[in-house]
Structure formats: C-alpha cells, structure tokens
Amino acid sequence: MAAAKGAFLNHISRESSDIRGLADFYKEIFGFEEIESPKFEFKVIWLKVSPDFAIHLIERSPDTQLPEGPYSTASPVLDPTHLPRGHHVCFSVSNFDSFVHSLKDKGIKTFQRSVPNRPIKQVFFFDPDGNGLEVASRDE
C-alpha cells in the first residue's frame, strides 16, 4: 500500500535568470494567473492555472554553473523534434488546433505528432529558458 493518500501534482518549479520574462511567457501562452508569492531572500513568482496546480519561478542563483534548462536558449540547435522524451512538462487543452496556430503566430518553433492508436494530438516546443513543453489535445 502506498504511503501517501490522495496525492496529486501541486506545483512545478523552474529556476531562471529572468523570472519576469518566463512568467510573462506562461501567462501569455497558457493563461496562468500571477498570485501572491512569499518573500524569500531571492525573487520568486508564483503562477496558478487551476485551483490545484501552480508553477513556481525561482530566481537563479548566480553561483549556478549549469545551463538554464535541458537546452540552453543560447544553444545553436533548439529543435523541438529532438526534445528529450523524459524532460518536459505536459498540459492538455480543449482548443488544440487554435492553440497550435497561436504558437505559430508568435513564431514559436513546434513539432506535432499523434499518439499511436489513440485520438490524441501532441505539440512540442520550448519555453524561453529552453525547458521542454508538450501540449496534448483533450475532448471539450
């Protein structure tokens, strides 16, 4: 028997050198709402998309030696066809086709495919820090 009861995903955190720019991206693309954030010794922005799910954006420590995300935005190749399958966050939307169209209108490079033997479409792309994102279709 599992130790945790009633577990669900509460939030995902992303570290960034530009949390304001990253927050604006998630607000514009997914409709996240900026909510009150606690005061720490470093900057944070908390965004919420539903009553039970949030993204916490955390100011990157200047001592950090690692690139921004799985791919650095300075990388010569930021190709969504090569997004690492184990390094992404997935959202589902009911307006999949218009959502994909809005990404293209914004100049965001995407890669689309369908789930084999299931009526689900997927689009893959990167946020401004190079973190992999997937959006899957869902029924209305």
From TrEMBL:
<dbReference type="InterPro" id="IPR037523">
    <property type="entry name" value="VOC_core"/>
</dbReference>
<dbReference type="InterPro" id="IPR029068">
    <property type="entry name" value="Glyas_Bleomycin-R_OHBP_Dase"/>
</dbReference>
<feature type="domain" description="VOC">
    <location>
        <begin position="8"/>
        <end position="138"/>
    </location>
</feature>
<dbReference type="Pfam" id="PF00903">
    <property type="entry name" value="Glyoxalase"/>
</dbReference>
<protein>
    <recommendedName>
        <fullName>VOC domain-containing protein</fullName>
    </recommendedName>
</protein>
<dbReference type="InterPro" id="IPR004360">
    <property type="entry name" value="Glyas_Fos-R_dOase_dom"/>
</dbReference>
